[in-house]
Amino acid sequence: MNTTIKSLIKIIIVLLLSGSMLMIPFEEMGVPINVIQARVIALFIFAALMWILEPIPIWTTSVLVITLTVMGMSNQSLNFLQVQRYDAGAVKAIIADAYGPGADARTVEATQDAVLADLKKQTSLSSGYVRNTINTAILKPVVANKADDAQKTALLAASARLYDGELSRKIDELKLVSVTKQRSVFATFADPIIILFLGGFFLADAATKYRLDINLARVLLKPFGTNPKFVLLGLMSVTAIFSMFMSNTATAAMMLALLTPVLALFKPEDRGRAAFALCIPVGANVGGIGTPIGTPPNAIALKAMQDMGLDVSFGKWMAFGIPFVIIMLLVGWFILIKMFPISQPSLDLSKELKGKFLKTPKAIVVYATFIITILMWIIPKEYHGLDANSVAIIPIAVFSVTGVISKKDLKSMSWDVLWLVAGGFALGVALSETNLAKDMISAIPFGEWNSTVLLIGASCICLFMATFMSHTATAALLVPILAGVAGAMLATGSMDNPGAVALLVTVAFASSLGMALPISTPPNAMAYATGLVEQKGMAISGTILCILGLVITIVMMTLLGSAGFFG
After folding, report:
1. How many CA atoms lie within 13 A of 346 on its CB side?
2. 543, 335 in Cβ contact below 8 A?
């Protein structure tokens, strides 16, 4: 069976499995999933299977995800795919009932037209928004002082009816369908993370072009000797240290640039090349867990705990975060050297990575820009005002203006990786803006679980979501919900402070541990772009590592809580 037929069979299987989701009568089964959300589920399954089976290049799957989201789930969908997003007749009836009998027909009709026009323009609808829209339209004459005392009394009474009694119930029972914004989907192509990627590409290409990568590799890896296994550990450790204080993506971009000359020393058939390519995303993903500023999920969880009055300082986080990183680096190192045996007998970088730092004007521009960019990534934003994404524009601008990166260099960059990442972002947009992710999480009865079951269940759900969604988006979605659940359980005595801390920290860790696929994290995508890593190898090693990491996290949090570490 040739490759083309195998790919066609895979595509047919994917289409049948994802398409079957559109045939399930969710609403008739009592499951509150509307037509658009069913399409998002189908798209989610389609993307996941296509990314896993890879019948076509994964970046083209991302393009399909963006295309299908715009055409079938956005406010600019094809006409025959658009759905009724709310019951216009029911909304009109609510407005008429709010005014009551005897109201001026033209006033009622004008309010109805204004409300329906507003709702038509909105992509995200909720009962609260509908109520506020109707209320604003009714009270418009009052706010503008264009109503006499009698009219004001009547309009205020109409407004009150929207928030109490039968009308309030009818508004809450309205079936509302949210769609994605076309602008939000297309914006994934220019997401700040995309610019961060591009800045990393510029740094990596400039470093290679002017031999900065070879020289830095020689200096940084010299303490780890010549044994390839320890050189591998050295790369992971250096990556993790940088990742604790700067963007995981920027760290991965920089370290992959340093890795290029190391990989050139391996024979093509040596499986150890994959281990070296994978060690960078593992170090970057795990290293960010070590400090509250290492990755956004940590900061989200820390803020939630501080808002709840839980005692977790920056130093206390590092006290358990850094040991966890060290353990995970050793576990990841062991997995990589077992899965991808290294045949290369020795890596004497002092001999192989020869040369001196170039002193040409353009080389000096590269050195200075490299140092400034890294320092601005490491130094907290409060000191210079730019986040990591904005800092990434500096090397793009400098290297373009000075001619360090030429038109030819620009064409050779891994643009397919940017499209791959944009597709993952678009899937996250679809899950978020259609309210599917929120509705599914809200439907899970977290409050009915005991603290241990809640900890395990929430972390597993988080890990699964983070594998396919942005880690930051996963944490931003789950942490507020679980913080509310933890707060309620603290109030009833079914959970203590250490349990609440363990829950939120575990969710933050689980968000960063989702790294089984190329689309799971930007560092994964960058490593995959080297062409040295098969998706199957990444999936197996990443799955083992994230499951072990989750088990270690839960055990560690339980032991620390029992020992009174969190008070």
Report:
1. 7
2. no
What is the 8-class DSSP label of residue 532? -
Determine the angle formed by the axes of helices 522-529 and 192-209, rounding to 10 degrees.
40
Q: What is the pLDDT of residues 519-534, one digit of tens each?
A: 788 888 888 877 777 7
- Please give the backbone phi and psi of residue 526, each rounded to the nearest 5 degrees, phi first: -65, -45
Residue 359 has pLDDT above 70, yes or no: yes
Query: For the ranges 136-140, 155-159, 443-447, 514-518, which has the lowest average pLDDT?
Result: 443-447
In three-state secondary structure terms, 565 is coil
Task: Say whether 341 sits in a helix, a strand or coil.
Answer: coil
Identify any residues that bridge with 180 across adjacent strands, giving them in sequence order. Answer: 74
Locate tokens 């830095």: which residue? 216
Q: Are 120 and 196 in contact (CB under 8 A)?
A: no
Cβ 77 vs Cβ 430: under 8 Å: no
The Cα–Cα gap between 167 and 565 comes to 51
Burial class (CB in 10 A: 0-12, 13-18, 19+), 30: exposed
C-alpha 555 chain-centroid distance: 26
* Most distant pair of Cα atoms in the chain: their distance: 94
- Kindly report, residue by residue over 474-512, the tens digit of the pLDDT: 787 778 778 877 877 777 777 788 888 888 999 999 988
- Residue 535, CA distances (Å) to 120, 295, 364 in order: 43, 24, 38
Other beta carbons within 10 angstroms of residue 281's beta carbon come to 32
Rounded Cα–Cα distance for residues 507 and 322 (Å)? 17
Q: Which segments of 403-534 does DSSP mark as H helices, in order?
A: 407-411, 415-433, 436-442, 451-468, 471-492, 497-513, 522-529
Q: Give me 391's structure tokens.
A: 């800092």
Residues whose CB is less than 8 angstroms from the CB of residue 133 and which lie 6 or more positions away in sequence, other chains included: 115, 118, 119
Cα separation, 315 vs 458, in Å, equals 26
Burial of 107 (0-12, 13-18, 19+ CB in 10 A): middle
Q: Which residues on adjacent β-strands are paired with residue 282?
A: none
Unique residue bearing structure tokens 């290369």: 344
Torsion of CA 272, 238, 389, 200, to 10 degrees: -40
Residue 430 corresponds to which tokens in the numbers above? Answer: 């679809």
For 81, phi and psi rounded to 5 degrees?
-100, -5
pLDDT tens readout for residues 265-314: 777 777 888 888 889 999 999 998 988 877 888 888 887 887 788 877 77
Nearest CA to 134 out of 91, 179, 177 is that of 91
